[in-house]
Amino acid sequence: AMSLKQLSMLAFLTFVAISSVQAGEHSHGKNLNIEHLETLAEQGDVSAQYELGVMYVDGSGADKDMSKAKYYLDKAIKNSNKNDLAFADVAKIYWEMFELWKY
Fold it and tell me: 34-58 pLDDT, tens per residue?
């Protein structure tokens, strides 16, 4: 059986492959990795903040980390430069669904 680390790596590689196919979906059309997303998130990119939050909640493409999920989804919700309100709205749903205020 595969270890959790191998499985998460496989999930990550699948995620990367899908991301590169759907490159146009993210406003920056980059082949996304965590470091790149974190840079964008710190620059105030609401879609990157949202994407990171979801990755950390789901453990897809990143190790599950509720405090990081909270950090990024909170940023997405409070983002003053909301060029896409849908991200903030879905971030709020995650916030409630996973009770992120507890972390």
Answer: 999 999 999 999 989 999 999 999 8
Q: How many CB atoms lie within 10 A of CB 41?
A: 23
Question: What is the Rg, in whole angstroms, of the alpha carbon atoms belonging to the chain?
Answer: 13
Q: How far apart are CA 87 and CA 21, in angstroms?
A: 21
Q: Write the CB contacts of 72 (distance below 8 Å, at least 6 apart in sequence).
A: 41, 49, 50, 52, 53, 56
The pTM (predicted TM-score) of the whole model is 0.67
At residue 21, what is the residue type?
Answer: V
| Cα dist from 9 to 3, 12, 44, 102, whole Å | 10, 5, 28, 28
